[in-house]
Each structure stands twice: as C-alpha cells, then as structure tokens.
C-alpha cells in the first residue's frame, strides 16, 4: 500500500505471515517497523527507545527500518484527525509496531485511541511482563521474587461498552426486559439505575488462554493461572475458568496437567516437560501476589481482573516508569509502555524511558530476536544498577545521579556496545 504522509522507508522489507494457522511470522533482517512516538512524554521516550532498539538490532547484525506514523496530537497537526486510517493500515500491513502513550480526555471528547487501536487491529491479548531490575526501588522486601507475565483479555467483559445510562428510556427498557421477561424482579432497586452488560465468550476466552499457554510453553514457564471471580459470576467468570481447563485438556493434553493431577500423580513436583494449569479467585490472587509471589508465573485473566492485577503487580517491581507492555493479535503485535502521556512532564527530556525501551524489548522477542532483546534488558539493568538514572528513580535512591531521558538512553546504548 502507498501512504500519503507516513512513507515506508525504501531500505526496509515487510514482515509477512509464514503460517496462517499458527500466526508465525517471516521476519527479514531489515523489517519495516511503524512507530508512534505518542503524546506528552511520548516525544521524549519515543526517540530514546528508538535509539536503544537500533543499537541492539545493529549489535546483532540486523537493521530496523523505522516508519514514523502518527496518532493523537501529532496526527491532528498533520491530518486534522486523531487516528488516521493510514496509521491503522500501516500497523496492519507491517504486523509489528511500537507506540508511546496517547492522551485520552476525561469525561468528554474522543474515545481512547489506545482502545480504538487495539480493537480495530483485534489485538486481543494485553501482555505485561513483570520482573524486577536490580537497583529499582520497590515497596516490597523481595521484589526479585516476582517474575510473572500477565495476559489480559482486551476486547470484552465490562469494557465492551454495552451500557445504558440511569434515567434514560433505554435503561428502563432493559430493566423491564430483565424483570418482566427474564424474571429477575427482586434484584434491581427502584429509581434511576445505570445498567451494563458483561459479555465473556467461549471464543474470546479461549483465544486469550491459548496465547497464554503458547507463551508459557515457548518460554519454558512452569504454570498458567486462570484468575476469575467465578464464585460470584458463574456464567461469565466461572465460564472463563471452565473454558480454560477445557482448552488445556483438548489442545494441550500432552503438555499440561492440572493442579489436582500435580498432587494426585506427581506429589506436588511437576515434571520438567509439564505445564501446570491452575486457577485462583481474583481477590485471593491479589493477596497471593504479595504473600506467595514465587508460586505464580503466567496469569490469564478476563479484562477487568487483568486491569487490576497487572497494575498491582507492576507496583511491586517499581511502578510506571519501568513497566513494559505489548498487545498480541493473531500474527500481529503492538508494543506500548503501561504509563500514560504524563502531560506535566512533557518535552522536558526528563522522564524515564525504561518502560518504552523494555516494551521494545518485548517487540524484539516477538520478532524472534531474543538475543537483541536480552542485550536491551541487560544494558538497562546495568544502567539502573549503576545509579545513573532519571528523576523518578534518583529521588528514591541515596547517592544516585540524575540523568536526562536522552542521557540515560545514550548510556544504555554504550552498554549495549560493550555487552555485544
Ligand atoms: P501517567 O501519564 O502514566 O502519569 C502519572 C504519573 O506517573 C506521572 O505524573 C509520573 O509521576 C509517573 N510517570 C508516568 N510515566 C513516567 C515515566 N516514563 N517516567 C517517570 N515517571 C512517570 O498517568 P495519567 O496522568 O493518569 O494519564 C495521563 C494521560 O495518559 C491521560 O490522558 C491518560 O488517558 C493517558 N494514558 C494513556 C495510556 C496509553 O497510551 N496506553 C495509558 C495510561 C494513560 P510523578 O509526576 O509523580 O513523577
């Protein structure tokens, strides 16, 4: 496809799908990768991450052909709209991309561009690796115990946006339907009431849990935990759990065992070649993150549980400036940091680019370039451990030196050269 503003670089090649069924990609050594720097601090962390990812690609004999694409404020300047079609098409065509944060106005204005991008491209799994880097201040005593990856369903649950406002005719129609036709007459209080639907489908649950199991198997992880509130919501949250066990049994029967089988057949010690599939109720899971951190590895969750759990887990390893993320679809991925556009710090070359850089590391892993990904992680960890860090970490550590965003990134690049 040809683009009006966001021209693809001539020296790059397009990533293609190698296997329709598995979503496996054919990745050239010089792939074209669309990048959205983003709003607010995106203008600081976007270029910083690009420099570091370039260095890691070059150090491992590859070359990223970046294609700048635009959304949010930068798109309004160039296209007079928030999310131009050609940005969406560029990401769709090139399959793997990275973006910085995009601002969402609260209460009024346009809908979240982040949600729109994930939905339009059907990026149904929001994936957040949560591991501790040496030298990052944490509120817990043993942050190094956490090494988890959250898979949060991205397209349904209460986020599907099927809601009726209190006092409207539509809300009253739904109330009447529920009370008169479905026979739930005792459960809704009289007077104005807002109503919402929580769809959790077999299709949506299974494709998310399939991604989590595939990831766990490919990365030699020990367990996948299905996190649900099925004791209360039997036909949505409990169904998510049941579909998870069904999928594990039907599609991964050879590779997986349940927790019951672990104790009944293996005395609590899983053989090396078996992945344990277990489940936990969400409120208990929030406690267990703190009290039994090492028992958990990959988590698979419906949308709302995933939202709460992944932020809580992120706090344990150092918070927003650090936490990376990536969204997976079938044969498609969009990496993005967990943090937002922090407008008050924008354009000051001040904030921490680690979350965006480590999101890039996830992207490199997705391309199958885990040697480059490991270089990025090791260089960032060394840099933070050295105490030469951005303001957010410097203010929490005695004797640390404060660096600008760009200085931090340049020093990480030097470390990549030294490590390679
Ligand atoms: P935020 O942008 O994540 O910032 C909240 C605070 O977190 C900042 O003030 C700063 O704390 C700290 N922080 C965030 N990123 C940092 C970094 N890279 N380095 C150091 N500190 C960092 O959250 P928000 O203020 O709630 O949201 C602002 C806008 O971003 C909203 O429009 C929101 O909708 C949007 N948002 C977008 C995404 C996305 O694009 N995926 C995600 C979340 C939010 P201190 O000031 O205390 O140092």
Annotated CATH topology of the largest domain:
Isopropylmalate Dehydrogenase
| Helix percentage range | 40-55%
Radius of gyration computed on alpha carbons: 22 Å
CATH class type of the largest domain: Alpha Beta
The general outline is globular
| CATH architecture annotation of the largest domain | 3-Layer(aba) Sandwich
SS elements, strand count: 17
- Which small-molecule species are bound to the chains here? NADP nicotinamide-adenine-dinucleotide phosphate
Modified residues (N6-succinyllysine): 99
Protein name: Isocitrate dehydrogenase (NADP(+))
InterPro entries: IsoCit/isopropylmalate_DH_CS, Isocitrate_DH_NADP_dimer_prok, IsoPropMal-DH-like_dom
Organism: Candidatus Halobonum tyrrellensis G22
Molecular structure report:
This protein is α/β, with parallel strands linked by helices and 420 residues long. The protein folds into 3 domains: 1-136 and 318-420, Isopropylmalate Dehydrogenase (3-Layer(aba) Sandwich), CATH 3.40.718; 138-153 and 202-317, 3-Layer(aba) Sandwich (Isopropylmalate Dehydrogenase); 163-196, no CATH class. It is built from 14 helices and 17 strands. The chain is globular. Residues 41, 45, 101-104, 114, 320-321, 336, 339-342, 351-352, 355, 392 line the site of NADP nicotinamide-adenine-dinucleotide phosphate.
Please outline the helices and strands.
Blueprint: E1 16-19, E2 24-26, E3 32-36, H1 42-59, E4 65-68, H2 73-79, H3 85-94, E5 96-99, H4 113-120, E6 125-131, E7 147-153, E8 163-164, H5 169-181, E9 195-196, H6 202-218, E10 223-228, H7 237-252, E11 256-258, H8 259-266, E12 275-281, H9 282-291, E13 298-301, H10 303-316, E14 326-328, E15 333-335, H11 354-366, H12 370-385, E16 388-389, H13 391-394, E17 401-402, H14 405-419
Parallel strand pairs: 3-4, 3-5, 5-15, 7-13, 10-12, 10-13, 11-12, 16-17
Antiparallel strand pairs: 1-2, 6-7, 6-14, 8-9, 14-15
Helix pairs in contact: 1-11, 1-12, 1-14, 6-7, 9-10, 11-12, 12-14
Bound molecules: NADP nicotinamide-adenine-dinucleotide phosphate.
């Amino acid at each position: 496809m040809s683009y009006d503003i966001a021209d693809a670089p001539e020296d790059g090649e397009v990533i293609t799908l190698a296997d329709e069924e598995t979503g496996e990609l054919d990745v050239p050594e010089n792939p074209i990768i669309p990048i959205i720097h983003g709003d607010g601090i995106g203008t600081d962390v976007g270029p910083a991450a690009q420099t570091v990812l370039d260095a890691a690609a070059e150090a491992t004999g590859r070359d990223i052909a970046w294609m700048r694409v635009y959304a949010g404020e930068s798109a309004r300047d160039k296209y007079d709209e928030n999310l131009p079609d050609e940005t969406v098409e560029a990401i769709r065509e090139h399959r793997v991309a990275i973006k910085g944060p995009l601002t969402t106005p609260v209460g009024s204005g346009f809908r979240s561009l982040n949600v729109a991008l994930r939905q339009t491209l059907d990026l149904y799994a929001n994936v957040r690796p949560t591991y501790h880097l040496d030298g990052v201040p944490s509120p817990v005593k043993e942050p190094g115990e956490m090494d988890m990856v959250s898979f949060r369903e991205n397209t349904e649950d209460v986020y599907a946006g099927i809601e009726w406002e209190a006092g409207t005719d539509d809300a009253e129609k739904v109330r009447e339907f529920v009370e008169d036709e479905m026979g739930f007459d005792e459960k809704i209080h009289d007077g104005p009431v807002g109503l919402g639907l929580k769809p959790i489908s077999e299709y949506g649950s299974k494709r998310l849990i399939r991604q989590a199991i595939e990831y766990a198997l490919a990365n030699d992880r020990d367990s996948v935990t299905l996190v649900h509130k099925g004791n209360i919501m039997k036909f949505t949250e409990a169904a998510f759990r049941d579909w998870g066990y069904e999928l594990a049994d039907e599609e991964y029967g050879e590779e997986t065992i349940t927790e019951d089988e672990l104790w009944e057949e293996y005395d609590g010690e899983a053989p090396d070649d078996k992945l344990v599939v277990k489940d936990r109720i969400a409120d208990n899971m929030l406690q267990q993150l703190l009290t039994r951190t090492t028992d958990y590895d990959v988590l698979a969750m419906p949308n709302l549980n995933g939202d709460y759990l992944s932020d809580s887990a992120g706090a344990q390893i150092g918070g927003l400036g650090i936490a990376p993320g990536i969204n997976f679809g079938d044969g498609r991925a969009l990496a993005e940091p967990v943090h937002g556009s922090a407008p008050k710090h924008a354009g000051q070359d001040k904030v921490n680019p680690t979350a965006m850089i480590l999101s890039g590391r996830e992207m490199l892993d997705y391309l199958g370039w885990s040697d480059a990904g490991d270089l990025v992680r090791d260089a960032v960890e060394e840099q933070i451990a050295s105490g030469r860090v951005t303001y957010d970490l410097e203010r929490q550590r005695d004797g640390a030196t404060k660096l600008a965003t760009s200085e931090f990134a340049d020093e990480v690049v030097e470390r990549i050269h030294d490590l390679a």
